[in-house]
């Protein structure tokens, strides 16, 4: 199974950008990210996924952890963003979106993470711990 990259995108207001998924009758949250393409580096995949899912052009970011998620290795990166609106880019999510399959980008305070049905749940728990002391001005990306 090909590896995945996921993004912890944070802003100066101590918020994280998540994707609220509403699919059929399910309502849940995910981190922006996706599969690493054949021959693509993890860093290039993180940049591509940021652009496809948030329209952000990733300039600088740092790897923070990885975990095994349903048999697939998932690599997480953190980056700070300016306080700018996010919107779906021209990736597969935009093409798949319809009334029964929605992708909504939402900024949420760090404190709310532990209360969400956020997948993968192990990553949610790690992110909650990591974001307690995160510096929100150390890494920048721009829209």
Blueprint (SSEs and pairs):
Elements: E1 4-10, E2 15-23, E3 26-30, E4 33-35, H1 42-54, E5 62-69, E6 72-80, H2 92-96, E7 101-109, E8 118-119, H3 121-130
Parallel strand pairs: 1-6, 3-8
Antiparallel strand pairs: 1-4, 2-3, 2-7, 5-6
Number of strands: 8
* Helix/strand structural class: alpha/beta
Query: Which descriptor suits the 3D outline?
Result: globular
Q: On the 0-100 scale, what is the average pLDDT?
A: 89
From the alpha carbons, calculate the radius of gyration and give it in angstroms: 14 Å
The largest sheet, given as strand count, sense and whether it forms a barrel, is:
4 strands, mixed
Q: List the helices and strands in order.
A: EEEEHEEHEEH
Protein name: Nudix hydrolase domain-containing protein
GO molecular function, one term: hydrolase activity
Cofactor: Mg(2+)
Keywords: Hydrolase
């Amino acid at each position: 199974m090909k590896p995945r990259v996921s993004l912890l995108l944070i802003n100066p207001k101590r918020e994280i950008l998540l994707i609220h998924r509403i699919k059929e009758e399910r309502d849940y949250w995910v981190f922006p990210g996706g599969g690493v393409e054949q021959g693509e580096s993890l860093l290039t995949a993180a940049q591509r996924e940021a652009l496809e899912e948030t329209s952000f052009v990733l300039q600088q970011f740092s790897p923070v952890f990885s975990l095994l998620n349903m048999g697939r290795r998932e690599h997480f990166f953190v980056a700070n963003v300016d306080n700018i609106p996010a919107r779906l880019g021209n990736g597969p999510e935009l093409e798949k979106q319809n009334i029964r399959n929605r992708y909504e980008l939402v900024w949420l305070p760090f404190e709310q993470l532990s209360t969400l049905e956020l997948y993968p749940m192990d990553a949610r728990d790690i992110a909650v711990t990591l974001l307690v002391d995160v510096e929100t001005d150390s890494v920048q990306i721009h829209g």
